[in-house]
Amino acid sequence: MSASSDVVTYEIENRIAWVRFNRPEKRNAMNPALNRRMMQVLQELEFRDDFGVLVLTGAGTAFSAGMDLQEYFREPEAQGLGAVRQAQAEAYGWWRKLRWYQKPTIAMVNGWCFGGAYGPLFACDLAFAAEEATFGLSEINWGVIPGGGVAKVAVALLGFRDAMYHVLTGETIDGRKAAEWRIVNEAVPLARLKERVTEVAEVLLRKNPVVLKAAKDAVRRVREMTYDNAEDYLVRAQEAAAFLDSEGRREGLRQFLDEKSYRPGLGPYDTARKG
Ligand code: COA
Fold first, then answer.
1. Ligand 1 lined by 27 (C-beta under 6 Å)
2. For ligand 1, atom 14, which residue shows the shortest CA distance?
């Protein structure tokens, strides 16, 4: 458990790790201190076996208002290129860790979500928003392009016309529109957001964790491969997963084919039992 004065806090509850941006007075803008602390927290948690799903969310009224314009942009720029590159590496570093995280991850967008916040949003495997949340690529409004991977996120998540509109106008959209544009999986009223995210996390907690990791990586990898490369990658990924967990798949088959205790089309095998 981390101190509440931390810029990142977390707690583990029923095998779900709730990790929070915690600079509510600055709308959880990502400054270098937050980026460094987030990397530490993600590293501390990654291979612990007391949780199976990580949820990233924000304290107060924001998920995150993006990069801290004072401490991430203005101050490093005043110090010179070395400071700029270091600040970038610290931010990009934890987003990359999150994109390839050992556990499945869910972004729970509780409020403001701007600019650089699309980095961690995309890094999470699934995303749920409050209908009342506000999303925007505000870069164009203050005079920069959506850098730091943000333009890439826009085209990865949105259709071409919507991505271009979102980037060029800087207009905000609410959670419902974000779901319609597929920036998030679903939007629900803020009052129901935690309950819905918990429900989805519980679905993931019932799956084989080795297979979850292999499957989430596969989805990210194959997006950028040719069909033939993907076909080959997936053969290897399946075999690598079987190396880490040789029993899982055999047990899944056994419970269906021999024991007839579940139907794979309708739900998972009982991962707690071994034949
Ligand atoms: N960088 C630095 N400081 C930020 C910030 C950011 N991205 N977002 C908010 N803050 C600070 C404000 O400067 C203010 O600080 P102060 O209390 O010391 O004056 C504090 O957080 C509260 O912000 P405020 O604008 O008063 O809150 P709000 O609830 O009225 O509005 C936002 C929230 C998110 C709409 C507004 O703060 C905003 O537009 N932020 C910038 C968003 C942005 O462009 N992000 C992209 C960066 S890549």
1. yes
2. 26
